[in-house]
Structure formats: C-alpha cells, structure tokens
Design goal:
5-stranded antiparallel β-sheet; OB fold (Dihydrolipoamide Acetyltransferase, E2P); 17% strand
C-alpha cells in the first residue's frame, strides 16, 4: 500500500488530471481529483510536492491506480465516496469538482439536486450516494474553509446551542444565520441532546425541498 509520496513534479496534464512525481529516480503516475486541479496546476515543474495517496486495485479494475490529495481528510472522503455502487476511482476523480466540505454538506443535507451538478452524477446515482453515505460524512461537512482544511470546527462553549453556532460560523454562516438555523432546528427537534445530531438536523433543514 502506497499512502504518500514526496518527490519532484515532472509533468502535469490537466486534461487527464494526471501528474508524474519523481521520487528518487522512480516516476509515479498519480491521478488528481478535479477539486485539487487548481492546486496542482499552480505547482511548477521541478517543485517538490507532498501527496497523500490512495492506492486502488480490484478484480474489476486490475490495473493499479494511484490517486493523490493535498490533505489527508480529502483522501478519507474519497475512500468513502468510491464505496458507493457505480462510483469507481476514475469517475470520482472527474466528478469531484467541488470542495470536499461542500459535497459532504450536500450529502448530509440529502440535497440530490446539488449532487447532480457534479460531472457524471445523474438522478439515480445522486440518490444512491445519499442513501449510502448520509450520516457518515458529518466530520467532512464541518470542515473549515479550504485554508484550514483538515481542522474540524472546535466547540466554543459547553452549551449545545453555542457549540452549534460556533461550528456553523466556521462554515461561513453569519452569526445571525447560524443562530437562526440552530433555534429552528431545536424548535423542530427539542429532544436533541448531542452536537452531532443537532448539526445534522440543521444541514438537513438547509437542503432545498
């Protein structure tokens, strides 16, 4: 299993989302998901890069494939995403054109229409994605903005409502929007006692009907 590479970028082909990384004389071909193409495209030939990688091979796809990510949390999201029936690594690489946190929020909010914006994701597959992954991506859905990717929003106080507002403002909600969303969720589900459940209800209620 190859879980990471640190080497020199020798080639980047945006059309195929493929990079070549030279590691001490051995060149690895690595697929880069669409959401990370701008990051990889900003690297110059000869730059040192560090990638978290996912090594994929199966009976159905016997040719080994390496997929590279800037952040470990992106790798874990990708691993979960390709567990969805009819979503393989190649399709996922091309489909994931939006940030991990945004796609995870769509899934947790059961927003199948938003998922259909992703290349290659139709009505039936979007429904399958939600059915398979809903409830499993709350941590990814609560990631901070890309500059702090990998750091979940930290609770600001022991009070449940304050914790939820703090987490939502880290997702770029305004304080007013966050407070209103939390109040409405608690009114609808007053029995909620955990932060995780409260945030999931908020995300579900934010999804279009």
């Amino acid at each position: 299993m190859i879980t990471g590479l640190r080497g020199v970028l020798t080639r980047w082909d945006e059309a195929s989302s493929t990079s070549w990384i030279d590691v001490h004389g051995v060149t690895y071909e690595v697929l880069i998901p669409a959401f990370a193409s701008d990051w990889m495209g900003s690297r110059r030939h000869g730059d040192e890069v560090h990638l978290h990688t996912y090594y994929h091979v199966s009976e159905r796809n016997p040719t080994p494939v390496l997929i590279g990510f800037q952040h470990q949390v992106e790798r874990e999201f990708f691993r979960k995403f390709i567990e969805v029936p009819d979503v393989g690594p190649t399709k996922a690489v091309r489909a994931l054109t939006r940030p991990v946190s945004e796609i995870a929020r769509w899934i947790e909010g059961q927003d199948v229409k938003a998922l259909q914006q992703l290349p290659g994701i139709g009505v039936r597959l979007s429904q399958t994605i939600v059915a398979t992954l809903s409830g499993k991506l709350l941590q990814e859905a609560l990631l901070r903005a890309p500059g702090a990717l990998g750091a979940p929003a930290a609770p600001g106080a022991p009070d449940l409502r304050e914790d939820a507002v703090s987490a939502l403002t880290a997702l770029q909600y305004t304080a007013r929007e966050a407070d209103q969303a939390v109040v409405e969720a608690l009114r609808a589900r007053p029995e909620i006692v955990s932060l995780e459940e409260l945030l999931r209800v908020v995300l579900e209620r934010q999804a279009p009907a």
